[in-house]
Amino acid sequence: MAEEPLLSKDEVGALLGGVDEGAIPAGEGIAARGEVREYEIGSSRNVSSYCPSALVGIFEKTAEEFGAGLKALVMRDVPVTVESLRRRRYDDYMAELANPTCLFPLEEPALPGTGLIALETRLVSLFLEQYYGGTGGGSDDAAAGVSALEKRLARLLAATLADLFNSESAKAGALAFSVGPIETDPRRLAVAAQSDHLLVARLRLVVAEGAGECHLVLPLPMLAPLGPQLDALGQGSLGQQRRFRMALRKQLARVGVDLTATFCQLPMSLRRLLTLCPGDVIPFRMPEDIPVRVAGSELIRGEYGQSRGQRAVRILQAIPDSPTPDTQQETLS
Questions:
Q1: Which among 60, 75, 259, 265 has most CB atoms closer than 10 A?
Q2: Can you give the C-alpha Rg of the chain in angstroms?
Q3: Is 275 contained in some domain?
Q4: What average pLDDT score do residues 78-87 get?
Q5: Rounded CA gap, 136 and 211, in Å?
């Protein structure tokens, strides 16, 4: 029997919101009696109260297509993975960004609010060096600023990411996100209220010997109108999975297997085996029931006999399922 969760999804969402807003104190170490401390869950993709499963799939598919497009740009593999999906307050998130960072407002006329695409300057430098045949080491010198060429390349990367996100989210609606002018100082950019909450998708890109992050940031009010479409899309995905399982089960039912019935097993020494000659008789007692196996697993118990002049095995009983070590491990996990 599955254990009941200690907290419902709504309660988890309320706790996270309280920590983000400062209503619930958070700190390090063990909480004193009556005190609430922050608990690091890891990837907030586990909390679906503000990130539907369909949206998680859209982010992951966008990352996959982004990597394929970047490979064509630098002529080498560029693995792109979704490192995390986290809910953050706008002021906290902006305070964490380095200066400079390539920031592009992300707007969709049909949706409220303004999103954001953030590119680490190190990541832009990596792509620039790879594109022009550099060492690919990237630059960490914040004082060097962002050159005009790096800004143009950053805009190309941001526009490509926005187009791919539009394409992958088309099932949730005809969206047309577009990137605005670049800003490199997070302190000079204001696209949301300080207390607004954001959904931050952190994409990790590996370029040659270096790596960097690209963030796709959407305010929660911007996602609210898409809630019904995303929920319906998630249910559609579950329906597709059920249909796939049914089709797979139907096809597996047509697979042929070999039945092996073992009538007897006799212990014999190698010395005796070497003395056997044609015509020798090896007596044995016919067992009361015979195991019938498929791929080494005993599935049926039967008895030997004849049917319509042919030797046959009559089925007596089916063997109950006995978990293998692999299935036991799956059950425990």
A1: 60
A2: 31
A3: yes
A4: 91
A5: 10
CA atoms within 13 A on the CB side of 282: 12
In whole angstroms, give the CA distance from residue 16 to residue 89.
Answer: 11
pLDDT at 184 over 90: yes
- 261 phi and psi, to 5 degrees? -105, 120
Q: Decide: 93 and 149 in contact? Cβ < 8 Å.
A: no
Look at the block and give the residue holding tokens 């022009």.
132
Instruction: At 214, list the tokens.
Output: 């690209």
Q: Which long-range contacts (C-beta less than 8 Å, at least 24 apart) are formed by 284-290? A: 287/263, 289/316, 290/261, 290/262, 290/263
pLDDT (average), residues 91-99: 93
What are the DSSP E strand ranges found in 172-282? 178-179, 197-207, 210-219, 259-261
Tell whether 157 and 265 lie within a shared domain. no
Extended beta strands in the chain, E state: 80-89, 101-107, 115-120, 178-179, 197-207, 210-219, 259-261, 290-294, 297-307, 310-318
Using the 3D structure, point to which of 194, 211, 241 is the last residue of a domain.
Answer: 241
Which candidate, 49, 54, 19, 42, places its Cα nearest to that of 202?
42
The CATH number that applies at residue 303 is: 2.30.330.10
What's the rounded Cα separation, in Å, for the pair 55 and 170?
11
Angle between helices 53-74 and 227-252 (to 10 degrees): 80
Query: What is the mean pLDDT of the segment spanning 44-66?
Result: 72
Provide the domain limits for residue 105.
Answer: 48-241
Q: Tally the domains of the chain.
A: 3
pLDDT value for 330: 42
Q: How far is the C-alpha of 131 from the C-alpha of 269, rounded, in Å?
A: 73
Are 8 and 154 in a shared domain?
no
What average pLDDT does this structure show over 228-244?
Answer: 65
**How many CB atoms are closer than 10 A to CB 111?**
20
